[in-house]
Design goal:
single chain, five-stranded parallel beta sheet, 10 helices, about 15% strand, about 250 residues
């Protein structure tokens, strides 16, 4: 079982988002476990205050070290091992599929959601193992990034999806975007499903899908394409696809 513990000021958000669909079913089937810990519960202030003004001046408030560290210890002190602690931060590594794969090999992640102007630096020095961002922009807090991380990592846990094929052919898994998908009806708005998908010839279908993934990545995400090491067969598939585009 993959276990996520989330240190947050807003625990109610997680069940609302991660209690449904694929992730909700995985939780019900005890494939993954998601627990939330309210940092406010560990405040020593009678008003459950968890933030204060920054030393040195400046705008905004900073989350204090003591409530966060005590919230962390409420989990860690019961364990015989050190779980990996990830702080969701705009200063962290930008989340991608390689990092998702890396995190999916862990058995236990503790996710720390910051707010305001961030958290006391001593928390990072004391308990944080990794800082991860979901993009080069700033959000109000770490809850949405934590949900994104949980969702993306959970999909790689055996048993969460119906089969490995469900994620191994998705966009980004092999550094390629996913091929186009179609379902009924065969014709919609005068557009028909490509004939190869109706042929029943699995080798040709797989070839077409590979070709479309290459073409999509080349046209839509040249930054991803530049990182690929294509073999000769893939180069020919792409050349054919681009020639068809020109025609």
């Amino acid at each position: 079982m993959m276990k996520f513990d989330v240190l947050t000021l807003f625990p109610e958000l997680f069940d609302a988002v991660l209690g449904e669909s694929i992730i909700g079913r995985a939780r019900q089937n005890n494939i993954i476990q998601i627990n939330t810990v309210n940092i406010r519960d560990f405040s020593l202030n009678k008003h459950r205050k968890v933030d204060d003004y920054p030393y040195g001046g400046g705008g905004g408030m900073v989350m204090m070290a003591q409530p966060i560290c005590d919230a962390y210890l409420s989990i860690a002190e019961k364990l015989s091992y050190k779980p990996r602690v990830v702080y969701l931060s705009p200063q962290g590594r930008v989340l991608n599929q390689e990092i998702v794969k890396e995190l999916s090999t862990e058995e236990h992640l503790i996710l720390l959601c910051g707010h305001y102007e961030g958290i006391d630096e001593r928390v990072i020095e004391e308990i944080v193992d990794d800082e991860i961002s979901i993009g080069d922009y700033v959000l109000t807090g770490g809850e949405l990034p934590a949900m994104v991380l949980i969702d993306s990592v959970s999909r790689l846990i055996p048993g969460v999806l119906s089969s490995e094929e469900s994620y191994s052919q998705e966009s980004h898994y092999e550094g390629l975007l996913e091929y186009p998908q179609y379902t009924r009806p065969y014709e919609f708005s005068e557009r028909k499903v490509p004939g190869v998908l109706m042929s029943g010839h699995h080798e040709n279908i797989n070839r077409w899908r590979r070709q479309q993934s290459l073409k999509r990545t080349y046209l839509k995400r040249p930054d991803m394409f530049e990182r690929l090491s294509l073999n000769e067969a893939d180069r020919k598939l792409l050349e054919e696809a681009l020639k068809e585009n020109e025609e």
